[in-house]
Specification:
The chain has about 300 residues and is of the alpha/beta class. The chain is built from twelve helices and eight strands.
Length: about 300
């Protein structure tokens, strides 16, 4: 049975100093999730629902005080360059300044946009030179991202999320080449995290090469809630190993299309004051983003 945060705090006092993982626990947690569609919670059906960041937030609230949770800086489709741009906005400076716990998913779009997935034939193709160039760019950008976070969130522990093999449905003979490139990406992320004093969270082992139960759509690389559960639990292995999200704790599906999210955001913005200052602060980061990716607004304060 899960212990609520009062009991958890007693455990922290009892075991403080006996395990290095305890030092990373933030009480209360001010959690900010940044990055790509995985941080946003994109489903295998191109909708948004509960993702690993939401499950982390849910488990945190079960076990400890949570002062704040935001995934305003999570955007489907973002590369490392896009993430770097997004954390340099005025909105990002405000939310990151209050954070003491940050997770980041960035790098997969740098690589996977170069992989051609023929889901009908079960084949994968890519150009090695393009991949080498993209991974080198991801390395440079990740170093810059972590440097920015060190400056903007000096009190935060940063967790860099790794990636899983995203093509379990392809033929076995097609898996090795792309798997090696994802291994290279994970190594880049691990080394960047280590250099910046951040924590790298490996998530590939729970998925393996045949994780069709977690990535059910052959034509889409995003996981279902079981996959996101595996990612969240990998995070807690580094944050507080005794905390685990059980199957019975997974919330019911409540997917929203991008159109529904945009409509809800527009309705919310129409309710805000119409003076020029209010209009400026109401803008989403994607309003000024050349790529035009969707900005997912979810900012939840807790007292």
């Amino acid at each position: 049975m899960k212990k609520y945060w009062m009991a958890a705090m007693a455990g922290f006092l009892l075991f403080s100093g006996t395990a290095s993982a305890q030092a990373a626990i933030q009480i209360p947690a001010a959690y900010v999730a940044i990055g790509d569609s995985l941080a946003a919670g994109q489903t295998p059906n191109q909708q948004i629902d509960t993702g690993y960041t939401d499950l982390i937030h849910q488990e945190l609230t079960r076990n400890q005080p949570v002062a704040f949770y935001s995934k305003n800086l999570a955007f489907p489709g973002f590369t490392t360059a896009d993430v770097l741009d997004s954390i340099q906005t005025d909105e990002a400076e405000k939310v990151l300044g209050s954070a003491n716990l940050i997770t980041i998913s960035a790098g997969a779009n740098d690589l996977l946009r170069l992989v051609q997935n023929d889901s009908k034939q079960g084949s994968l193709t890519f150009q090695q030179r393009q991949v080498d160039f993209a991974l080198n760019g991801a390395r440079k950008n990740m170093d810059l991202i972590l440097s920015e976070l060190t400056e903007k969130s000096p009190d935060a522990t940063v967790y860099v999320m790794g990636y899983y093999f995203a093509y379990p449905h392809v033929r076995e003979s097609q898996k090795n080449g792309t798997s090696k490139q994802l291994d290279r990406l994970n190594e880049i992320l691990r080394l960047s995290a280590e250099k910046a004093g951040a924590v790298f969270v490996s998530v590939d082992q729970p998925f393996g090469a045949n994780g069709v139960d977690k990535i059910p759509n052959p034509a889409d690389v995003h996981p279902n809630v079981i996959g996101y559960q595996a990612m969240a639990n990998a995070f807690f292995e580094n944050y507080q190993e005794s905390w685990t999200i059980e199957n019975s704790e997974l919330p019911p599906a409540n997917p929203l299309s991008f159109e529904e999210i945009i409509e809800a955001q527009e309705q919310q913005e129409q309710k805000k004051p119409k003076d020029s200052e209010a209009e400026e602060t109401a803008k989403r980061p994607s309003d000024q983003n050349k790529t035009g990716y969707l900005a997912l607004q979810q900012e939840i304060p807790y007292v």
